[in-house]
């Protein structure tokens, strides 16, 4: 592997998966996409049941932060009486995309959930571009684990690994045809579910559609 190989190369995905095997579910898929202003290799798991439900009901795309906020205020698959909801929320229900919820004159039942889970985002950088790589990987902090893939070991590796560990970013280094994991990324533990995080998932799902 060398600096000319891109994250879109299947060999890179295979090598990163092998190095990160203990972090990834066997069902995890991968794709290289331009997201958050950077080319990234993303490992993800589809929610097959939700994807099938959306296809079955011809669900419209969920790309509105307002709609996602409305859905987050409702339980999943549990009917809620409209009379129990504040006027603001009752009004917002009328603007939900098709397939997101079942609404009649008496109650609403949320159906939509996230169609996939992103487990790991890997951003590539040269050893000389360490700081820029950390910044680009850091953009994925609200959504998943993050790691940096370097073309060679960084100078002063102990110092660099301590810096990456401070931000919770893993470090992988290309070594010939393989990739070595020097530092595991910090587990992703969101404090709360936000419309922005769900919107990222919906955009990603649309892109791989």
Notes on the protein architecture:
It is a single chain. The protein is α+β, with helices and mostly antiparallel strands. Helix content is 33%, strand content 26%. It has seven helices and nine strands, in the order αββααβαβββαβαββα. The protein has a six-stranded mixed beta sheet, sandwiched between helices. It has a three-stranded antiparallel beta sheet with strand order 3-5-4, with no helix packed on it. β1 and β2 form a beta hairpin. α3 packs across α7.
What is the topological layout?
Layout: H1 10-19, E1 29-35, E2 38-46, H2 48-56, H3 65-72, E3 80-81, H4 87-93, E4 101-103, E5 107-110, E6 116-125, H5 130-138, E7 145-150, H6 157-167, E8 169-175, E9 178-183, H7 195-208
Parallel strand pairs: 6-7, 7-8
Antiparallel strand pairs: 1-2, 2-6, 3-5, 4-5, 8-9
Helix pairs in contact: 3-7
H/E element sequence? HEEHHEHEEEHEHEEH
Rg, rounded, reads: 20 Å
Distance between the termini: 29 Å
Beta-strand content estimate: 25-35%
Task: Work out the number of β strands.
Answer: 9
Number of helices: 7
Principal-axes shape call: elongated
Q: Mean of residue pLDDT?
A: 91
Residue stretches low in confidence (pLDDT < 50, at least 5 long) are 1-5
Indicate the percent of residues in helices.
25-40%
For the largest beta-sheet, the strand count, sense and barrel status come to: 6 strands, mixed
Strand order of the largest sheet: 1-2-6-7-8-9
Structural class: alpha+beta
